[in-house]
Write a structure and sequence with these properties.
Length: 467
């Protein structure tokens, strides 16, 4: 990777630190050092890790997925659910033995979980072998922090949350070649009562349109065929910005770029989803026929306590309009089961909404309290065991919907991006413009190519042939 691969407008100071690290690290370790980036959580974290890797490569590190081979280990963490935090502590704890064997290894923790002061305090006290804890808004200063540590600085804890300008020009080392993540904004202003994101990611900040367009062009030029636009709430892109471009306008601009590629986006908030956005998805041939629109609960009472700013009626109006306007639309959603104070009657409202809409797939979670959010202080009388029963009931309903609707995709023709090896020898698989995964006879040289596939059968898996 060279500096020509990225815009260096906002990276000049850190680039100078990167050059110093390159010299210091080689001198300290006597060889090219290796770095291991361990990622937990959502697509946004994956995208952030690609920037961490880009900076590390720019500092002269090679990349490895084996912690025991690395001289620098960084855990990019998630704070959305308790299980993810438990996994982080377990993985960080395992580095103690590595540090005992080689005290010169640098161990760092960053991301959403690291942004919480209680977590930083726990690491400071109970994990003395961790050298750095970096919050979500200082990760672009990684070269500076590594330089300071290599120069003999003490442990570094920086949780600065300024909600300032988004740093541009940070180098990127993408994990894939034909599928890629493109962040368009950071932070969130919605403050849903269960969600920790606004507290660890800060308030909404949108990237400048020209920066997004330039990065999209670079991705297309490098062979990317599937670009996913990322944001905590992409629908609110551009709010309060002088350029006046909203998310629909941004989609249209990217759609106009030369090249054969597909555009996806996530996540959308129903509060800010509009008919204009749905019309844009309908009109733009490169935009995927997929809308991920989390409704979280079918009960208006629970939605109000969640601070979601829409009701069941409004959600169904949006969904029904989208179904009318977009042929073969794939609808997916997020659902929280067992929110504090939720009764079985409230939960049945969720079940009835799922049955009415018939989503392509669900992302379902049993409520997990997050320290510092309003919901964590609410009464929660329903047992975990009872919530588990509700959860199983919801999954059963969705399985019945899938068994009914997925065979209806047989006999149709789709443009498919071949992105994986199939479940059987001699088969490849890919996703259509929505979310349907189709397997078909093919060789590995098809990876990263668009093919036209006609579906022929469904037996738990959609199968077809290239035509």
């Amino acid at each position: 990777m060279t500096k020509a691969d990225f815009n260096t407008d906002n990276y000049a100071e850190q680039s100078a630190y990167a050059d110093r690290v390159k010299t210091l690290a080689l001198k300290k370790y006597g060889k090219q050092p290796a770095a291991c980036v361990v990622t937990f959580g959502c697509q946004q974290n994956v995208s952030d890790s690609e920037r961490l890797k880009g900076m590390l490569v720019n500092m002269g590190y090679s990349l490895t997925d084996k912690e025991e081979e690395a001289q620098f280990i960084i855990f990019n963490t998630c704070a959305v659910r308790e299980h993810a935090e438990d996994r982080v502590y377990g993985n960080v704890g395992a580095t103690k033995a590595l540090k005992r064997k080689n005290p010169d290894i640098i161990v760092a923790v960053c991301g959403c979980m690291a942004q919480r002061q209680s977590v930083a305090d726990k690491i400071k006290q109970s994990y003395p072998y961790v050298d750095m804890v970096l919050g979500t808004q200082v990760q672009h200063r990684l070269p500076e922090f590594i330089y300071r540590r290599l120069s003999g600085s003490g442990r570094i804890f920086d949780l600065t949350l300024e909600n300032g300008e988004i740093p541009e020009g940070v180098p990127i080392k993408r994990d894939g070649t034909f599928k890629g993540w493109l962040p368009i904004m950071y932070g969130c202003n919605n403050f849903c009562t269960y969600c920790i994101v606004p507290y660890v990611r800060g308030r909404e900040r949108s990237r400048a349109p020209e920066q997004i367009i330039n990065e999209a062009k670079q991705m297309i030029a490098s062979g990317c065929k599937d670009i996913t636009l990322l944001g905590q709430n992409v629908n609110s892109y551009g709010k309060g910005e002088e350029h006046g471009l909203n998310f629909s306008g941004l989609l249209r601009k990217i759609n106009e770029l030369d090249g054969d590629f597909r555009i996806r986006f996530m996540t959308s908030h129903p509060r800010d989803c509009t008919k204009e956005l749905i019309d844009t998805v309908r009109d733009c041939e490169k935009v995927s026929s997929h809308l991920h629109l989390p409704f979280q609960s079918g009960s208006d009472r629970i939605l109000k306590i969640m601070n979601r700013h829409y009701d069941r009626k409004r959600y169904l109006e949006l969904v029904n309009y989208a179904k009318e306007q977009i042929p073969d639309l794939a609808l997916t959603t997020d659902i929280i089961v067992g929110f504090p104070g939720e009764t079985y009657e409230d939960f049945k409202e969720t079940l009835s909404l799922v049955k009415e809409v018939e989503f392509s797939s669900l992302f379902t979670f049993i409520y997990s309290p997050r320290e510092g959010t309003p919901a964590a202080a609410m009464d929660d009388p329903v047992s975990r065991e009872e919530k588990g029963k509700w959860f199983s009931e919801l999954l059963k309903v969705q399985e019945e919907i899938a068994e009914k609707n997925e065979p209806k995709l047989v006999g149709k023709t789709y443009r498919v991006l071949c992105d994986a090896v199939g479940s059987e020898d001699g088969y490849m698989s890919g996703r259509n413009s929505g979310t349907a995964v189709i397997e078909f006879p093919g060789e590995k040289d098809l990876l990263g190519s668009f093919v036209t596939v006609k579906t022929e059968e469904y037996s738990g898996v959609l199968k077809g042939k290239i035509i």
